[in-house]
Amino acid sequence: KDCGDKQSTIDDQHQVIKNMTSVLTDVRNAFKDGRVSAPLTTRDAINWYTKYVSRNGKIMEAAKYTFLNRMPDSDARHVAELIQRKFKIQANDDMTFLTHKNKSVSKNGL
Fold first, then answer.
1. pLDDT(107) > 90
2. Distance between CA 23 and CA 40 in Å, rounded?
């Protein structure tokens, strides 16, 4: 049974990496097409996965702390929507950080 559980975990992680790679490719293409202002790098991918593991599989939270929080709002929304689609995340509270981000920016007058 343990071997099956380990294989399932490996398969799950493989799918996560595959989805992350797909998101990065889509963001790079969006950058080339002028839909986002900057691409995501290989270092972003490594950091995203590391945070994903350390945050117990919370993919959107890991993305937030890796790159979404430093992107312009329109880029962050676009990338967050890509992540939602690739990981089949239900549209619930996963995007609330963007609202909080906007409020904190406006409070500082930036």
1. no
2. 9
* Cα distance between residue 73 and residue 45, in whole Å: 20
- Residue 38: Cβ within 10 Å count: 14
38 three-state secondary structure: coil
Closest CA to 22 of 83, 97, 68: 83
pLDDT tens figures, 51-73:
999 988 899 999 999 999 999 99
d(CA 24, CA 91): 20
- pTM of this prediction? 0.77
Question: How crowded is residue 67: how many other Cβ atoms within 10 Å of its Cβ?
Answer: 22
Whether 21 and 82 have beta carbons less than 8 Å apart is answered as no
